[in-house]
Amino acid sequence: MELPLIAIVLVLIGYAFGSTKMISEGNEALVERLGRYHRKLSPGLNFIVPIIDAVVMEDTVREQVLDIKPQQVITADNVTIEVDGVVFWSIIDMEKSFYKIDDIQIALANLVTVELRATIAGRTLEQTIASRNEMNQALLEVLNRDASEWGVKIVRVDIQSINPPENIKNSLAEQNAAVIRKRALITAAEGEQEAAVKRAQATSTAMEILSQTLRANPESKEILQYLVAQEQVEASQKLGESQNAKIVFLNPGTLPKDTFDQVLGEIVANQSDSNGMSEQGKG
Fold it and tell me: Are residues 206 and 230 in the same domain?
């Protein structure tokens, strides 16, 4: 009696161990019953029927990274470049990912490679370098359309590097430098043009103000003539301070007699002060 009881206990224990299946968090598993798909196991403790049921697959549903090795790709203008990148993806339908495709990793790698070549083949080298974000988005849409049949979602595509040949790199560097120099010259020319326009506008405004003032106050003409004379005095003084020029020219015909006498007196006084300082320096 004891042996049959022990045997029954052992069978029950074995059945208990064989019928339990622990699925880790972030994973899912597929169960077949007599060779046909039966159900999916969620994270936690699950029970199956030993011998009849079998767990045929357990995989993660978390986001995974697929590293795309460097690929030699030809652009639309026949330049061979080396491109690599990464693809972030996750399984959203475990049943499709197991029954619709044999090896999901290899399938995705080949799909990404084909679509990457097709995307770059329709662009020139310059377009390829300038539109990396656009290519990432285009690849994301195309890959999701095809990978959805396998129960996979492409989360993000990132083209990491685009490496043209060395001679092409040098040509691009020279071209960029030329573009920068051109922009600098254009900016400088535009600045000079804007400054000239503003100076002309300021002069026009000043002339308009003076014209209005003279029309409103005829006696202010003498003030204006005096200011002109002052400018000539200052210019004459600067000329007189030069070591190579000591002659002062002043056109008296442009000034009234009183104004001319006043200005001439200031010139003589300034010249006398300068000569007196020079003699004191000699003494």
Answer: no
